[in-house]
């Protein structure tokens, strides 16, 4: 996937850029191209936000003549590639939720791009996806509300200068999007700090009540996108009061094999170009790897055979990182080993995370689906090769 950033000699290299930097040119184009009405505080129209996230479906978007003249720095035409692969209706619902200034909670299995979608939405809606609180067991109310610069607090007493706003408070002031990652990993009483934020739209700072009414109010446009992983403490444990303040959207794994293969190819390619390694994942490796991930994830092969599911989540994110690792091996150790021969070793590494019995389930997959495909002459040779590598799995 090509991006909009170019590394200049003066800018310090960063491993990860926020989405609004990566896609700066595309966001500027979409802001200029769609002049329809937009919610207060939004950079783009709701429709342009969906186009940014899901792509323009192959359509070439063009700038009107006068708009193009006013923005000579923008390309006159642009086809927007999809970033999040998934249901466009779901993304539309997310955007409508945000336009109504309601909280949005993205729930799903690990590695289904909840964080990525939240970042893309925040970047497109408010141009800043970096106002993030990462939920952990150690998250406190201060992380969601505000803290103090204690040196200033001791020297001057409570003052606006000594106040250290949380990312949520910063988003309220700016009328932007605050992101709360892994909200269900926070203690329920900490999560509930968001109830007043989302209902009263203000955070009171009693220590400053002498100065004004001591509260920080949300500017129009402020809203919260939270994510929750189904493998963590459940969303069922969220308080009813907080649940009512969020619209829930469940993000599932990618539906089609072709779309998942294309995504893994693109994302691994992008990771490799960041590593400046020549990209050498061959199509056969990609196809068997993504097929194996999907079979093990769903418990059913494409042919309809039953597959014993490991307890580990076989996520697309993990498929991307395995593909990247295999390609890096091929790039850095050329000629050592055929990339396909690395697949079983990587799969066992992915599978053997939670339950030792998962290694047996992988072996059962080999003895079932992989063997049957190997015996079928009409199948790609890669399956025969994989079957011959069964010993790598240990028995
Ligand atoms: N539907 C998808 N569209 C685009 N990329 C995807 C999709 N599913 C998975 N990915 C890939 O997975 C990567 C990781 O996604 P992300 O970290 O956002 O997942 P997550 O759902 O937040 O996972 P976790 O629950 O572990 O935090 C993405 O950067 C992307 O490479
Ligand atoms: Mg995440």
From TrEMBL:
It comes from the Bacteria. Residues 100-256 form the AAA+ ATPase domain. InterPro entries: AAA+_ATPase, ATPase_dyneun-rel_AAA, CbbQ/NirQ/NorQ/GpvN, P-loop_NTPase. GO terms for molecular function: ATP binding; ATP hydrolysis activity. SUPFAM superfamilies: P-loop containing nucleoside triphosphate hydrolases. Signal peptide: none annotated. This is AAA family ATPase.
